[in-house]
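Lesson 9: reading folded outputs for more than one chain in a single document. The general rule is that every protein is listed as its sequence immediately followed by its structure tokens, and records are never interleaved. Here is the first one.
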Amino acid sequence: MRGRHAAGGWSPFWRDIILRTVLALLLVAMIIFIWWLFSDDDLFTEAVPTTSVAETTPTSEAVTNVTEPEAGTSTTTRPATTAAIEADTTTSTTAPVATTSTTTTTTVPPPLDPAQLVVRVLNANGVQGVAGRLSGRLEEAGYGVTAPDNHAQRLDVSRVWHRDGLSREAALLRDELVPDALVEGIPLEQEGIDIVVVLGRSFEE
């Protein structure tokens, strides 16, 4: 007579039930995960409070109060930056500074009168009596004259020598009486003599 074996472990029926249950749960979990992954709605995020449009957007009445100009005023509005630039330009404009030019005028004294000058005539052309005759003409013109004399050497061109500061007076004398002469500073001053006239060969009476 065969003995009965005691049933060991889980029966095949229960194993199948548990296995199928686990597989079903895994399938459901996978479906939920895939649906959450591709869904537009975030089920796990709390709703973020939004600001009401009425709170952030100014009402039409407020906009009207801001933009509507008062009666009798200009409707043209300028940006604040433009007005600030114009104001800065107006205030930074410097007034023209009046410049005064000082002109220094040097007063030149008139030439000395012929009566204040002493002239000596020297003969350097060899024509006898020419120095005496010119001395007479100078005296008639109002000059003070000394006795005429001969020059140490002959000259081709006449000279009118003058002391320092008497160049204008010497030029006037030359223009009036010895137009062919050169006006030069006196090479050797003589006491009491202001101008020396040396008559060269170019001199014509």
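And here is the second record, again sequence then tokens.
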Amino acid sequence: MQIYVVREGDSLDSIAAAFAVSAEEIAYDNQIPEPYRLALGQALLIPAEGEGQQKRAVRVNGYAYPYIRDDVLSETLPYLTNISVFSYGFTTGGDLIPPRVDDSRIISAAWSQGTEPLLVLTPLDETGMFNNYLISEITHNMEAQQHLIDQMLLTMENKGYAGIDMDFEYILPQDRVPYADFVANVRNQAAQKGYPVSVALAPKTSADQKGLLYEGKDYRLLGAAADSVLLMTYEWGYTYGPPMAVAPIHKVREVVEYAVTEIPTEKIDLGIPNYGYDWTLPFVQGTSRARTVGNAEAVQLAVENNAVIQFDEIAMSPFFRYEKDGVQHEVWFEDVRSMREKFGLITEYGLRGMGYWQVMKLFRANWLLLTDTFTVVK
């Protein structure tokens, strides 16, 4: 595959003719709806002939809620090693709380495509927020902890899960070691039934990094406690923050450079965002709230509003501005150029693979680029 950036005067037909491929194939691969309008600066993935090359095998995980659309799920599963079903919670007494939507459909669909479903455990409270009181209780109360592990392993066996993913955030600094011990306890008991355990890590760049997101996450301890880790290398640009790239490559690189000093590379998956944000301007801290957009959706916003897509050469991410109903907007998202940069980091550092948050919206060009670059482990 190759990447082409739309210029003034281009049309889908003229690009197809230049590359001797069908316009329909380009439109399908890049999710371009009729009447096939393009945005200036839009990056297109173009099929290209060439000799096959040796491709490195990687593991690919995608997070999904049980209510993911059937068509998105069926098209995405062939590109995934695992799908992490978000999520199971728990009480202070260790009772496991299932997702609000039944997860049987997504588990069955995953196995039918040769993709292993993972049970995601999170300390979410009734408001949907991460609760560090829950974390403290389950890491210090060994009776409740064992009850939770027993329930989790039983549920996995009954439901047909293949492994566990632990996504705990806002861990208190004093729970840093108890949390790592908890992960190790889960792994030791899960291993007896053949279940691997992965753990999500906030994007740290040093061991002593300050902040509630970071102080409770010890890379070295958790890397030793779990079978694998996911670096949550996204959300620099986020819902309540100022407009910027969600995963600027220079920031992502800093996290990877630190992680490989604490954790074996064969245990590390790189977190990749499958979304962007649409901010209204001017940004007002404490008031502004960005809207989440899919990557294909972002391009259509640019088309509909005659916006020119630009590419930040430091963040290696696309963005654009547009005006609607008298309001200025700024959009940052991912395209095949920004994805290619992230794939390059995985290759450069010899990482195990990648994990997408999340796969609820289809980004077909990403999956085609992925399989053009790597072989997905199944």
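What the second record shows: The mean pLDDT is 97.
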